[in-house]
Amino acid sequence: MRLLPCGDRALLAEFASLESARAAHARWSAEAPGGIVELVPAARTVLVRLDPAVLGLGAAEHWLAAHEPDAVAMATVGGLVTLPVVYNGDDLDVVAEAWGCSPAAVVERHAATEWVCAFIGFAPGFPYLVPAGAALPPVPRRATSRPSVPAGAVALAAEYCGIYPRCSPGGWQLIGRTDAVLWDADRVDPALVAPGARVRFTAVRS
Amino acid sequence: MSAVQVLDPGARALVQDLGRPGLAHLGVSASGAFDRAAHRLANRLVGNDEGAAAFECLLGGLRLALPAGTWVAVTGAWSDAVLVTDGRRTPVEPHTAVRADAAAELHLGAVTRGLRSTVALRGGLDLPAVLGSRARDTLAALGPEPVRAGDVLPLGPEPASPVPLGDLVPVDPPPDGTVELGVRPGPRHDWFDAAAWELLLTSEWTTSARSDRTGVRLEGPALARVPDLVGVELASEGMLRGSIQVSPDGAPTVLGPDHPVTGGYPVIAVVVDSALDRLAQLRPGQPVRLRLVAGRR
Q: Where is the Carboxyltransferase domain (chain A) (predicted)?
């Protein structure tokens, strides 16, 4: 872990792997002392936002270093969310080429994989999912973004699977669509899939 | 229950409070008042809780119909504000609580200093909270819709605390010359060469007209990366209000209250907390200098 400067009220903890960043976010979320006001997990980092009046930058550095988790200790985590998907996305062929298989086999592998939400980004409730087990081959982003991707679109890019919570522009490869409501600000848990949650996709016919 | 009617929102009027911090892990920025000190002061002047919802008005021009007995205060950007009662026009000084003794209209003129005015009404704007806040997040489209002519917004109940005594709070208007912002190194300062650092801290930057609550763009020289990192993609990482991210063409943008929660452009420096409110009042074309503030690193 490297602790990088980030102005006068935050530190950016950088890790060698997504797994280590997830482990740190999980442990720090559970144990953080007062003065750590926000932890923002991402692909290789956890942003630690502080209230410097309560916890200074130096004290925070010491605490974070002393509580760096052992990545191996980090197993899973949250509850299981099952999402029905109609696998009719426009980019199944692109993913098939990246994975070196047929479009039907893409559907099979995607639905057979257990996914874990590593972090949320891009929009409220947009989960970045990674396989709980062995990684799948990376998928290239589209050269140009689509101006409008529908809500519920299930899509792949790099090592991630994502789900668009609402209609928005997007550059990921579309493989299907779910009717599940990923984001509802009026729900007790607004994000259906929160960091740490496990996700399974099941194929349904429209 | 009393209510205020919007006659004209001006260029753009939003409802803001002190935002919804603590939800970034769900993809939600803190949002909230851009000029936090102005927001707190406006509320204190009318005896509200500092976090009550108020109008954040861009470039003046807001016109409101106030019921009799409403207390109002205007802070932040300066404009010629008047209370119009039966054709009588009473000036509303900045940073002063004023009571509409009869039904009246509040008119904000064009801004003469700064960019965003806060208009607080006693009781606060009592709209439904979303995730605990009445702030409009313009990027995530959360919270009350931007205000339109004809909107009727309910005011909350009379606060327990009275309107404080004291006529006028001496606060300087937003500066109209060069604005200096303190910065500290950002997590990716080492993605840029020494010349880029020198340029960052010695150039006179110009506030771009293409600035909003998501970010304030600065126009000036391009900030070059070290040769090894040209064209390299940074995995998305957490962003802050005040993060200065540099796009691949070398242009810096200082992130505002409605910033994306994560971003993939390297952050060279971060504006210190005490300077963040000044960002809200930067006018297009206004010169900006960035100064390195001493710290532990």
A: 1-193
- CA–CA gap between residue B295 and residue B157 (Å, rounded): 45
Q: Which of A5, A190, A11, A14 is nearest to B269 (CA)?
A: A5
Residue of A40, A166, A183 to mutate for B, most B C-beta atoms under 10 A: A40
User: What is the C-alpha separation between A122 and A105, in angstroms, rounded?
Assistant: 29
Is B296 in contact with A57 (Cβ distance < 8 A)? yes
Q: Please check whether residue A167 is in contact with residue A146, taking contact to mean a CB–CB distance below 8 angstroms.
A: no
| Residue A34 touches chain B, beta carbons under 8 Å | no
User: Rounded to whole angstroms, how far apart are CA atoms B219 and B253?
Assistant: 9
* Section B53-61 average pLDDT: 97
Structure tokens at B253: 């943008």
Q: How far apart are CA B17 and CA B120, in angstroms?
A: 10
Each residue's pLDDT tens digit, A29-61: 999 999 999 999 999 999 999 999 999 999 999
Are A90 and A153 a contacting pair, CB within 8 Å? Answer: no
Tell whether A8 is within 8 A of chain B (Cβ): yes
Bigger pLDDT: B222 vs B169: B222
Contact B273 A9 (CB under 8 A): yes
Q: Do A5 and B183 touch (CB under 8 A)?
A: no
> Residue B297: its chain A contacts at CB < 8 A?
5
H/E stretch holding B120: strand B104-121
How close, in Å, is residue B76 to chain A by CA atoms?
24
- A40 Cα to chain B: minimum distance (Å): 5
Higher pLDDT, A74 or B45: B45
> What ipTM goes with this model?
0.93
pLDDT reported for residue A122: 86
DSSP chain A: -EEEEBTBSEEEEE-SSHHHHHHHHHHHHHHPPTTEEEEEE-SSEEEEEE-TTTS-HHHHHHHHHHTPPPGGG----S-EEEEEEB---TTHHHHHHHHTS-HHHHHHHHHHS-EEEEEE-SSTT-EEEEESSSPPPPBPPPSS-EEEE-TTEEEEEBTEEEE-SSSEEE-SEEEEE--S--B-TTSSSSBSS-TT-EEEEEE---
Position A76 scores a pLDDT of 56
Report DSSP letters for B63-93, one per residue: EEEE-TT-EEEEEEEEEEEEEEETTEEEEE-
What local confidence, expressed as pLDDT, does residue A73 receive?
55
Q: Which of A45, A58, A122 sits opposite B237 (nearest CB)?
A: A45
Q: What is the pLDDT of residues B259-268, one digit of tens each?
A: 999 998 999 9
Contact call for A38 and B270, based on CB within 8 A: no
State residue B44's pLDDT score. Answer: 95
